[in-house]
Amino acid sequence: MTKIGLYLDGEPAGGALQYDITMMHAFAALREWGYEIVIGCGSDRWIEYFPNWDPAFIRMTPSRVARVLSKAWRTARLPMQIWRAITPHFDTPARAMLQQKCDLWVFSSSAAWSFQTPVRSLVTVHDLMHRYERRFPEAGGEYAYREALFSSLCRWATGVLVDSEMGRQHVAESYGTALDKIHALPYIAPARTFNPSAPADFEQRCPLPAKFVFYPAQFWAHKNHARLVEAIAMLRERGLSDIQLVLVGGKQNGYATVQQWVDSLNLRQHVHFLGYVLDEYMAEIYRRARAMIMPTFFGPTNIPPLEAAAVGCPMALSGIYGMPEQMGDAAVFFDPNSTESMADAIGRLWVDDALCADLAAKGRAKHAAWNQVQFNLRLKEIVQKLI
């Protein structure tokens, strides 16, 4: 029987968790198809995300010393061949992976153990924005570390998973990786999207205007909140006095700066900050929104457009990287560098009912054509090629 391992790094948290959950469901399908499955995880908290089946769990928590040494080794660009030879003697995850004798280990994140351990590996590279959007501190701040990580990953992995054809191009041109080694496995809308009804306390927790556009994003500089706020001000000047914007995201990073910008443009009655919103409330916000707006500078693709499509929420997106590939004719696209272009897109969605209805229908059709079932089948296809 073919044996496949899934490695879940660190603690379950952050935006990557939604992708991890998608991968867990795919592994449940692999087991149904006759594969022997083992789950390696860095925390016992991962177990709660497997409520409907009981795979074999192997705790693989590296020591702090091993983490520090491995990061130093990569940053110093010391020979990885030597590290791969010695790491099973002192590193817990490496030793545990080898003992399982899996035909392939799948890494849902760009974990260093994928190449520091001499196993066959299929490793996810979510993006290389540290190269393509280095102007933002959250992208370029650890450039040397990320280069060492991704270059080693792409060299030693048996296969590399990316989110799109644009992602394949980025990996190939950045590290000289052969295209036949890079496999596109597009994201799907996470499970949180499909809550059938709003929580009982939704109105209290999420006070919303009757009509609004919605941007779900943390307040990082690359999320481009400042230009979005300027676009809302521009639309008011054009006569859309009823325009309303709802923002969600924790009160850190650039949160205070965006609030100050809202105040300086006299938009306090038009821009609403909900703060951090729990997953179970998000689907209802999408359902009630006139449209979802995403002016981000990062890609290649993103999860929020898939969430919007799944519930029939029209959307306007940055027309860069792999986002036109991701959503095609199910979205309006704009130049994220241009306030005017952004305002034009938002304005169209605000006033054109027929356009919104058309985009909602096309979004639902896209979701029907690519969801968890298709994701599972595509992963199975890639796994079969590699083993």
Instruction: Enter the CATH topology name of the largest domain.
Output: Rossmann fold
Low-confidence stretches: none
The first-to-last residue Cα distance is: 12 Å
Give a short account of the largest sheet: 7 strands, parallel
Shape: globular
The CATH superfamily of the largest domain turns out to be Glycogen Phosphorylase B
Mean pLDDT: 92
From the alpha-carbon coordinates, what is the Rg to the nearest angstrom? 22 Å
Number of domains: 2
Q: Tally the beta strands.
A: 13
CATH class value of the largest domain:
Alpha Beta
CATH architecture of the largest domain: 3-Layer(aba) Sandwich
How would you write the strand order of the largest sheet?
A: 3-2-1-4-5-6-7
Overall description:
By secondary structure, the protein is α/β, with parallel strands linked by helices. The protein has two domains: 3-188 and 371-386, Rossmann fold; 193-369, 3-Layer(aba) Sandwich (Rossmann fold). It is built from 18 helices and 13 strands. The strands form two sheets. It has a seven-stranded parallel sheet, sandwiched between helices. A six-stranded parallel sheet has the order 10-9-8-11-12-13, with helices on both faces. Helix 1 (16-32) packs across helix 18. The radius of gyration is 22 Å and the shape is globular. The model has no long low-confidence stretch (mean pLDDT 92).
